[in-house]
Amino acid sequence: MTDNAEVQAPGLKLGEAPPRIPVTIEGAVGALIMGTLALITFANVVVRYFTSVSFAFTEEYSVALMVVMTFVGAAAAFGADRHIRMTFFTEKLPPRTARWVEIFVLLASLSVFGAIGWLGTWYTWDEYRFEVMTPGLGVPSWYYTVWMPLLSVVICLRILGRMWRVARLGLV
């Protein structure tokens, strides 16, 4: 992600202001997670090469970190107006109609991530309440699943911010 003003988002060019909270926060968290994943994988390869022993437990951490990185990336994508969409038809629409379509898409995305956050909260609560342990390491499973509802809230806030910037243009 870049915050450079000369780089346009690949979708609709609606002309809204950049987000107030910079997307570089998600970029830094994503870079930290990628660095951690690289270290875990590198350590596993080195230990396996020199000792013929595998750090099998690292797979559990790696999968959890990849899920967190996916949610952080989704938040960054919505914040920087780089979320996945099909623009073949919407780019041919008048700007006012394109804004309405963009708001509809954002509302649909908000409902999906809101549902993930809501259901993920209940899922995490059940794992905590019933003391579910992970099969590999035997740590409480909610350590991993708690990030799903928390980061869904971050994504929903990014979506709401984008909706506000699109709607604030006064053409909606």
How would you describe this protein?
The chain has 172 residues and is mainly α. 64% of the residues lie in helices and 0% in strands. The chain has five helices and no strands.
Oligomer description? single chain
Q: How many beta strands in the DSSP annotation?
A: 0
Can you give the mean pLDDT? 86
Order of helices and strands: HHHHH
What's the helical proportion of residues?
55-70%
Strand content is under 5%
Rg from Cα: 20 Å
Query: How many DSSP H or I helices?
Result: 5
The end-to-end distance, rounded to whole angstroms, is: 28 Å
Main pleated-sheet profile? none
Shape: elongated
Which class best fits the helix and strand makeup?
mainly alpha
Outline the low-pLDDT stretches: none
Descriptive key words:
mainly alpha, 64% helix, 172 residues, 5 helices, elongated
In terms of topology, how is this protein built?
Blueprint: H1 24-51, H2 58-79, H3 95-129, H4 142-145, H5 147-167
Compact description:
By secondary structure, the chain is an all-alpha fold.
